[in-house]
Amino acid sequence: MRPEISKMMNFIYPDLQDHPIVKKYPDIKGLPQNLFFFDHSFKESENELMMSKTNVEEAQIIVRFAFFLLQQRY
Fold this sequence. Notes:
By secondary structure, the protein is of the alpha+beta class. The protein has helices at 3-8, 56-71, and strands spanning 45-47, 52-54. It folds into 2 domains: 1-31, no CATH class; 38-74, no CATH class. A two-stranded antiparallel ribbon has the order 1-2. The model has no long low-confidence stretch (mean pLDDT 92).
């Protein structure tokens, strides 16, 4: 896993070590950093018949993000 992720896991896995090859991974193209969190305030919709929740706005943002990564040739 990327060092940016393993650093966050250090409090759970204090002996976690990165393989040397992950330190050579290039930065993700088109992004200011290699790790970030997405926060939103979109309300979920509930489907009582299926007993599940959905969030169309959240899904649309993820699709646009995936499209952006494809434009960066990932």
